[in-house]
Amino acid sequence: MSYQVLARKWRPKSFETLVGQEHVVRALSHALTTGRLHHAYLFTGTRGVGKTTISRILAKSLNCETGITATPCGVCSACTEIDSGRFVDYVEMDAASNRGVDDMAALLEKAAYAPARGRYKVYMIDEVHMLSGHAFNAMLKTLEEPPEHMKFILATTDPQKIPVTVLSRCLQFNLKQMPQSHIIDHLSRILGEEGVSFEPGALRHLAKGAHGSMRDALSLLDQAIAHGAGKVEEAGVRDMLGTVGEDHLYELLDALRAQDPAALIAVADGMEARSLNFDSALQEFAVLLHRIALMQMAPQALGDAFERERLAAYAESFDAEYLQLAYQICLHGREELALAPDDYTGFTMNLLRLHAFQPQVPGSAPMRAPAPQTAPAPRAAPAVAVQPSATERQAHAGSTGSMPEDSSPERVSGQDVGVEEVSPRVPAAPTQALGPDVDWHALIQQAQLGGLVRELAQNCEMLTCEGQSLKLRLPPAHRHLTAMPGTQSKLQDSLRQIFGENLRLSIEIGDVSSQTPAQRNDEVRKQRHAEAVASLAADPFVQELVERFDGTLVEASVKPIQEK
After folding, report:
1. Taking the complete model, does pTM exceed 0.85, yes or no?
2. Could you say which residues of the chain have pLDDT below 70?
3. Of the four listed, 118, 141, 407, 480, which is most buried by Cβ atoms within 10 Å?
């Protein structure tokens, strides 16, 4: 027996085995059970979502020898012949190749006769929007008042092209695109039945490449099995589809976080060497930026705990404003890719644009130990018996002019060394006392916070500031900022640089009673914007332009100069 492709072999033959169209199955099952059968049905949806499959199941339900039922037996002659396309009273017509009025007239002439074997004559017209205007007009009367033994099933991928006079005579069901989770479950079940080994990551790539079409997913699965010599492996599927792996995407993120343009270009070179699709790369990178933004604003929307943990570090490294800008750069980059000299040039230019627009946020880089003091050690410092390390000896040799040029490490260890050079490292002394007169807004500026830590601090109000305890309150709308791993501890570490290592920070959730730094900044920004708009409106040159060209001043486009 010749090989049958998976899309045909595993076509659902009953409503119970249909995947992903529960709303349509529920409506049709109730209609068949209660006997409330319409004479014309219209199924709309993209390719490969089940329009023809549902049509055949419905035809079996109407003509099954066990009676009209929502669960056809599948073994009687009517059911088996409909499945194989040989049932005389079930006709599938392609409107793309039979679109004229003569074709429609011939169909309607045959429809007038009683069914030869079945209970109903069922006419399924695929891609019905391809019919000509005269053909639609010819079928209107029959479609409105068909013979009792006749049922119409229309299917289309473009319902907007169907006349409203036809739409009003049909029951319309819009078939949804298949969710990736449904496609993955269905593919894994089929591979288990077929006895084919697979990697779960490969199915995710196939489901994504199917774009919501189950038939496309099964066709890609056939191709993947052939490509992998009987195995479905993630690396093989990526090579087959030309998709960009997560490793490349995270390498791009790491290079952006490190502000390393050379690393960005190196990643692009590696992708070009593997002939990966740069348009797909920008698309997938935009999706990843969206996931990071969700991690910042609504982490509960990410159901995968492993993904949340992986994205948490990136969510802390990038500002929310920059993520929005980077997302827009990726979207516009896809549009401009066709205008670029070549895909590689367009893609690398977008990467450089992502780097160029990345803000230099103070405090966003990892904190480093303070540099050694370069001032000479006091001459009156007492000698210390502790022997300095090699690093400290080099620092001392480079920062003081009192050491002889031919001094050796042995001689250095025996000399008088200043206390500043050899004292053990201790936590930095507080540079400011903690008290009720502390200005929280100014303190945030002094701490030079960055990323989500700065956003957390700016949306808090200071409640109490006593001894070594600092208590803040965060509005419920920003509760997600405390759910980010490490944000509260990093804020405490930054404040300890100012108030000392004994500082204890606590944050409670509740309505604020005073103005937070974020609210104050927003108020100042609005005030400066209003002043800028008023200044422009009062400018004689602008007034002349508005009067001469009958124009208006678009206030949203006004940007204050040197906006902080």
Report:
1. no
2. 1, 360-436, 562-564
3. 118
Q: Which residue reads 């206030």 in tokens?
A: 555
d(C-alpha 334, C-alpha 331), whole Å: 5
Six token digits for residue 175: 């078939």
Instruction: Give the Cα separation of 60 and 62 in Å (integer).
Output: 5
Residue 453 identity: V
> What six digits make up the tokens of 559?
């940007």
pLDDT recorded at residue 432:
61
d(Cα 259, Cα 359) in Å, to the nearest integer? 10
Neighbours of 478 (CB within 10 A): 18
For strand 121-126 and strand 150-156, is the pairing parallel, antiparallel, or unpaired?
parallel
Is 461 in a helix, a strand, or coil?
A: strand
**Residue 154 token pair:** 């229309």
Sign of torsion over alpha carbons 245, 249, 250, 252: positive
Tens-place pLDDT, residues 367-398: 343 444 444 444 444 333 334 444 444 444 44
Alpha-carbon gap, residue 36 to 153, rounded angstroms:
16
Give CA–CA dist 212/191, Å, rounded: 19
**What b/e readout covers 159-189, taking b as 16+ CB neighbours within 10 angstroms?**
beebeeebeebbeebebbbbebebbbebbee
> What is the number of helices (H) and of strands (E) in the chain?
26, 10
Q: Sort strands 171-174 and 40-44 into parallel, antiparallel or unpaired.
A: parallel
User: What is residue 563's three-state secondary structure?
Assistant: coil
CA distance 460 to 488: 12
DSSP string, 370-414: PPPP-SPPPTTPPP--SPPPHHHHHHHHHH-S-S-TT--HHHHHH
Return the bridge partners of 404, or none: none
Residue from 499, 494, 426, 446 nearest 468 by CA: 499
Which among 214, 212, 204, 290 has a CA at the least distance from the CA of 241? 204
Q: Which residues, other chains included, contact 227 with Cβ-Cβ below 8 Å and sequence gap of 6+?
A: 236, 237, 239, 240
For 96, the enclosing helix (H) or strand (E) is: none
- What span, in angstroms and rounded, lies between the C-alpha atoms of 223 and 404? 77
CA distance 113 to 149: 9
> Tokens for 311?
């994205």
Q: Which H/E stretch holds residue 8?
A: helix 6-9
Q: What are phi and psi of 179, to 5 degrees?
A: -65, 150
H or E stretch at 94? strand 90-94
